[in-house]
């Protein structure tokens, strides 16, 4: 017994010593020095590429390798990243936490906490991965989140590296849609981690990153303000469940630009409490499209306003531009513009669904989140003939109002028969002739409009 215990200690010491040797032996001096070249802090949009800016040559760098990270994809580098973060966070001047290329860093569920004394650039050059699936996830760690940035002001996350969520084993849990026996969904624990979450933070820039295969949402922003998202590549399989590309909730003054998103759920989803959101030049699909909602679940109150989606492409997706609300909710969606969007074989290019429900057992309810002042302009392309090109399914008690269409041309991807648009309790106008024509709009305004005491923000 004593011999076996001694042997175990020797093995542990040997493994620790090997990881220590890897810290030095695998450090390529040329690559390391190249990574230490000065990079930029990103300004407010629209901004030039990081390489075009000239930050201070004296800005400090905090290389995670210098804090003990191994980068072999096996050793746990969590503590090295946290130590590097804490050191950078307490620095008197803005610096860069450097994740060097040529390495794979395995990090467990971690919260990077602020506020910091100055701004931080989190530069990803290498690859960052989590533990490999639910069985490898530490028991005492949250299975709802992976990398969390909390109470940060003035952070830039950028680089040409990769964040790989290793989500396949999570997607295959029997509690996921149609993953159980005989294609059923089975009860049981179903928490899956969001890859990157920003919470209660402001003045954020996320730029140039590649992220793939998140177990659930790839990016989530909660209770944040002044956010710039630019030049992201987000990719996961079309059938990966709940893998929204970018989700925002209770977040305002958001700009999402120049990104390519292909995933198993919404490319961009906009939740309750969001306003002043500008989405431009997004290539989306295969996916579930760009969505406002779902809103009003469990009889909750939700307000969303001042949303613009423009100059974008949506292809091979279940939906194009969508507003979805549950019956029984309260609040409003208002001042929304969808313009200059190309649809390529999209099943529901334009859809408002105030009867959103994930099962066949949702009961009818009399209240609803109101939808008003929604504009669709210069939306062209093709649609999947299994559904009409436009669907406006509005509440019996809270109709959609002030819907406007102009220069909408949607043709069937196969055949020549135009599917007739569907309307239910939808009040709107066509400023130009649309293809197919929308003859089902109701004129004017409903006899009695619901009163909402929310102030619509300009």
From TrEMBL:
Keywords: Cell wall, Cell wall biogenesis/degradation, Glycosidase, Hydrolase, Secreted. It holds the Pfam family Glyco_hydro_28. Its main location: secreted. SMART domains: PbH1. It comes from the Eukaryota. GO terms for biological process: carbohydrate metabolic process; cell wall organization. GO terms for molecular function: polygalacturonase activity. InterPro entries: Glyco_hydro_28, PbH1, Pectin_lyas_fold, Pectin_lyase_fold/virulence. It is found in: Secreted, Cell wall. Belongs to the glycosyl hydrolase 28 family. This is Putative polygalacturonase.
């Amino acid at each position: 017994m004593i011999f076996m215990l001694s042997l175990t200690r020797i093995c542990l010491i040997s493994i620790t010593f090997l990881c220590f040797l890897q810290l030095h032996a695998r450090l390529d001096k040329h690559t390391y020095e190249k990574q230490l070249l000065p990079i930029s802090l990103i300004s407010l949009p629209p901004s030039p590429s990081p390489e075009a800016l000239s930050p201070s040559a004296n800005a400090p760098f905090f290389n995670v390798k210098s804090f003990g990270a191994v980068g072999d994809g096996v050793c746990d580098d969590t503590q090295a990243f946290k130590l590097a973060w804490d050191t950078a966070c307490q620095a008197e001047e803005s610096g860069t936490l450097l994740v060097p290329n040529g390495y794979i860093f395995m990090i467990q569920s971690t919260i990077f906490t602020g506020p910091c004394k100055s701004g931080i650039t989190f530069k990803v050059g290498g690859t960052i991965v989590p533990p490999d699936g639910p069985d490898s996830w530490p028991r005492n760690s949250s299975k709802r989140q992976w990398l969390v940035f909390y109470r940060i002001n003035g952070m830039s996350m950028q680089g040409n590296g990769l964040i790989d969520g290793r989500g396949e084993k999570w997607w295959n849990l029997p509690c996921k849609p149609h993953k159980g026996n005989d294609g059923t969904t089975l009860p049981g624990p179903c928490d899956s981690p969001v890859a990157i979450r920003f919470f209660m933070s402001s003045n954020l820039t996320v730029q140039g990153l590649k992220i793939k295969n998140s177990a659930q949402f790839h990016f989530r922003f909660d209770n944040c303000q002044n956010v710039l998202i630019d030049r992201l590549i987000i990719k996961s399989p079309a059938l990966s469940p709940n893998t929204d590309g970018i989700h925002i909730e209770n977040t305002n003054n958001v700009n999402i630009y120049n990104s390519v998103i292909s995933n198993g759920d919404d490319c961009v989803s906009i939740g309750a409490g969001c306003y002043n959101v500008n989405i431009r030049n997004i290539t989306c699909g295969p996916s579930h499209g760009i969505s406002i909602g779902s809103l009003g679940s469990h009889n909750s109150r939700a307000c969303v306003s001042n949303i613009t989606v423009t100059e974008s492409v949506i292809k091979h997706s279940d939906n194009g531009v969508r507003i979805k609300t549950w019956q029984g909710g309260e609040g409003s969606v208002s001042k929304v513009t969808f313009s200059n969007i190309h649809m390529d074989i999209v099943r529901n290019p334009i859809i408002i669904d105030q009867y959103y429900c994930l099962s066949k057992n949702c009961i009818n309810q009399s209240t609803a989140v109101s939808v008003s002042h929604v504009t669709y302009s210069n939306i062209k392309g093709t649609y999947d003939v299994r559904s009409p090109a436009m669907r406006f399914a509005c509440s019996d008690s809270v109709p959609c109002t002030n819907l406007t269409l102009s220069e909408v041309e949607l043709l069937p991807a196969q055949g020549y028969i135009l599917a007739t648009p569907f309307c239910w309790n939808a009040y709107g106008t066509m400023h130009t002739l649309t293809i197919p024509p929308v003859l089902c709009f109701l004129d004017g305004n409903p006899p009695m409009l619901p009163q909402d005491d929310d102030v619509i923000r300009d």
